[in-house]
Amino acid sequence: MTPIQGLFAAASAVLLFLYGLQGFSRELQEVGGTALQSWLERVTASRWLGFLVGAFATAIVQSSSAITALAVTLVDASVISFRASLGILLGSNVGTTATAWLVSFKLTGIGPIFIVLGALISMLPIRARYIGKAVFYFGLIFFALDLISAELRPLQNRPQFKEWLALAEAPWAGVLAGLLFTALVQSSSVTTGLAILLVQQGVLPPQAAIPIVIGSNVGSTSTALVAGLGMSSIARATAITNFLFNATGVLCYFPFLRSFSRAMVDLTTNPGMAVAWAHLIFNFTVAICFLLALTWVEPLLRKWLGAEARSASSEPAS
User: Are 223 and 186 contacting, i.e. CB atoms less than 8 angstroms apart?
Assistant: First the structure.
């Protein structure tokens, strides 16, 4: 296979991975979309409950973009308050790390099993059909990961590719690359999945992958920012706050990023899991810090962003 053919094959596998993630998220929302919205509507009592619901919902549907966009929409419709949405947004950042763990476990060979199982279930009555489609797309995710791994393997011996990836070893370059690529593909799961696969193939050092994964958290906020356009000021404030949470986290971690990356690599002998741990610890610590300070941060954000007081019923600062 020529280098050009290999490039197109790898790109096709990445697109298949993205298609599988989007399909899996769409079918789960089709099955439980009403229940999901109902959960989100009930979180106005506590920021911590909102955090847990946001994390759980994102881990299930495998799409932080879908959850954050839904939160922005619910705020615009005055179904949930601005304060309640912040807990959901912080929870979704933690829930999105589930994809990194799935990839790091190297569950090779299971994709075709779920594809066949999902196809068989989809032949059943209507309700089961949606579940079958979700199972099918779940299998497609892992099948695409196997394809990506196969296409990346030959790159180990290409010095030009290694030289290009070596640029990402500078923390600022890695963060920027993760941000831009995630904004382009509209999925931080694709960015983290690819980064971990490159690490597992020995093509990319884990110290270089960690800044990319952390940068992807900022890039993933682009979906909510776009969703907030044309909505009320309180909805736009929700979308902008989602960006500010992630950007502030990156700025706080950035001076210590090299040390943090080395600590994560020393944490485990599995380089792929080192990246997954870094992703989880970054998002969890940022979320907890903002949750603890939300009583003081929320009024400042509302005033600074010029958000109107139009919102759902007020809630206690619990």
Answer: yes
